[in-house]
Design goal:
The chain is α+β, with helices and mostly antiparallel strands. The chain has two helices and five strands; from the N terminus they run βααββββ. The chain has one domain: RelE-like (YaeB-like fold). The longest helix is centred in the middle third of the chain and has 16 residues. It is globular and about 30 Å long.
Length: 85
């Protein structure tokens, strides 16, 4: 996990994420937005319990809150994260 430390410059949202995000309550959207900013500042930030998914090298699941999770991977070519859902 240490190799992920470094300058993340932004994120890309996949279609499935956009559809799910659009249907969220505004309070949850705010929590998702905060999580994305925090991940860009510090890959695998504390407090979100990030974990690499078994059998999916480089794909992580991170808690947004007790109920919601986000799944993403790091795109090292352009120093961004790709959010799936």
């Amino acid at each position: 996990m240490g190799s992920l430390l470094g300058g993340i410059t932004g994120y890309k949202r996949k279609g499935r994420f956009v559809k799910q995000y659009d249907g969220l309550d505004p309070k949850i959207k705010k929590a998702v937005d905060k999580m994305l900013v925090d991940v860009c500042k510090s890959p695998l930030p504390r407090g979100y319990n990030p974990e690499e998914l078994a059998g999916r090298k480089g794909v992580y699941r991170i808690r947004v809150n007790r109920q919601y999770r986000a799944t993403f991977e790091y795109d090292h070519d352009d120093a961004s994260i790709i959010v799936f859902r």
